[in-house]
Write a structure and sequence with these properties.
alpha+beta; Thiol Ester Dehydrase, Chain A; single chain; 6-stranded antiparallel sheet
Length: 166
């Protein structure tokens, strides 16, 4: 059974990492925002979100560690047109020793509708050895703190059910 989608107002309860007006170059032959731009905006928002909890460029440079996407699931709910304003709100759902499970929500602030969701799992990696590694010490604490904060919203994330931390 599919979980209900959050309302526009419910999504606003989550941290916002990106807000922008959809530019003309994002339009496709159907006259709306093209799929590749949904992924690009969601990816940029994810990096912004993780930077905010301590995993941005400074972390990568200092620790030589980062994240590699393992699996992604994009779903579309409402059309987004050029000139409309969109915002991405992100929720860290859980983690294992080496993998995080994340979901972000694109809202169309012009129409006040949920436009799309982006669910993914990412592995924590040693960028020198190019292999997955466990979260330790401050990194584990930072993730657990954010998971607990994001879990405070009173609605379930509408996950696809096919992925999660492993």
């Amino acid at each position: 059974m599919a979980l209900p989608l959050p309302s526009y107002d419910q999504v606003l309860e989550l941290p916002r990492s990106v807000e922008m007006e959809v530019p003309t170059e994002f339009v496709d032959h159907n006259g709306h925002m093209n799929v590749r731009h949904y992924l690009s905006v969601q990816d940029d928002a994810g990096f912004s979100y993780f930077t905010g909890i301590g995993f941005g460029d400074a972390y990568i440079a200092r620790e030589h560690r980062g994240f590699f996407d393992l699996e992604q699931h994009l779903r579309y709910y409402a059309e987004v047109l050029v000139g409309q304003t969109i915002a991405i709100h992100t929720r860290l759902l859980g983690r294992s020793a080496k993998v995080v499970h994340v979901m972000s929500f694109m809202i169309n602030t012009t129409t006040e509708r949920l436009a799309n969701t982006f669910e993914l799992t990412m592995a924590h990696v040693d960028l020198d050895a190019r292999k997955t590694i466990a979260f330790e010490g401050p990194t584990a604490v930072a993730l657990d703190r954010q998971i607990a904060a994001d879990a405070q919203v009173p609605w379930p994330a509408p996950v696809c059910g096919a992925m999660g931390p492993r």
